[in-house]
């Protein structure tokens, strides 16, 4: 059996030269992946020119195709977003739309290309809306063919209104958030291992 690969798409509005609270929470996931010998890579979507649209390649310097290729090679996908105005970020919405552009592509069995890949969501913010944002992300990924394990999300939100975010508020000390990190990360790896050994049959799914 080959080692599992995890791809983490951080849909922060910030580029990599800026500190990201979402990235800080994601490191708790990648630490678990490291301990379980799962090779992981984190991509900050804002670092790339990802065009609007629902095609594999929108042309004119669109860098989505190189990210999409990494999604195709991954066994585990985590879609992560901050909360803005009570919802997932516009960047995460764009990523879902671009993934949708590949929904008609099939594997060698004639199944949707994202079959036998598992997915989860991570959300951070200092305002309400984390479960709403995570629910949107999980539903979109499931509709595209990704498999969703039990307890597939981890989130952290601070007090209502403006205030300190995950890093400043030391959100890593929050027992509920860390408990969900452990459940989500371990369940993602467990389900990915099952699909590696026993992929979804073509019957009824092609």
UniProtKB/TrEMBL annotation:
SUPFAM superfamilies: Flavoproteins. Keywords: Flavoprotein, FMN. Residues 5-152 form the NADPH-dependent FMN reductase-like domain. InterPro entries: Flavoprotein-like_sf, FMN_Rdtase-like_dom, ISF_SsuE-like. This is Flavodoxin family protein.
